[in-house]
């Protein structure tokens, strides 16, 4: 049995309009905008162990840019720290408390980084 369509967003982003003057620029993806250069971005390095069975993680928040750049930055940080992690919901999650090392790496890349929490 096929999945039932629930709303217009399930139709793949189609806009049904008979108005010839319709301006779809207000619906353009945010990814089409110019990404901010690293020097203008202010990232936050958080420490957390909530909701992870007591395991500690470092969370990098505040990245503004395309998802591909976020994934590439997360991959670089994981490789330099020699640990695992993931990238989701606009955040980079690195296993373990590596805030100091990550902050140094991000500053080398030109980002402004602020330490948040403990």
TrEMBL record:
At the top level, the lineage of the source is: Bacteria
Show where the SUI1 domain sits: 50-110
Can you say what this protein is called?
Answer: Translation initiation factor
Q: Where is the composition biased (Acidic residues)?
A: 20-33
Keywords for this protein:
Initiation factor, Protein biosynthesis, Translation regulation
Q: Enumerate the CDD domains for this protein.
A: YciH_like
Transmembrane region(s): none
Q: Where is this region: Disordered?
A: 15-48
Q: Which family does it belong to?
A: Belongs to the SUI1 family.
> Mind listing the GO molecular function terms for this protein?
translation initiation factor activity
InterPro entries tied to this protein: DENR/SUI1_TIF, SUI1, SUI1_arc_bac, SUI1_dom_sf
Kindly name one Pfam family recorded for this protein: SUI1
PROSITE patterns per UniProt: SUI1 (PS50296)
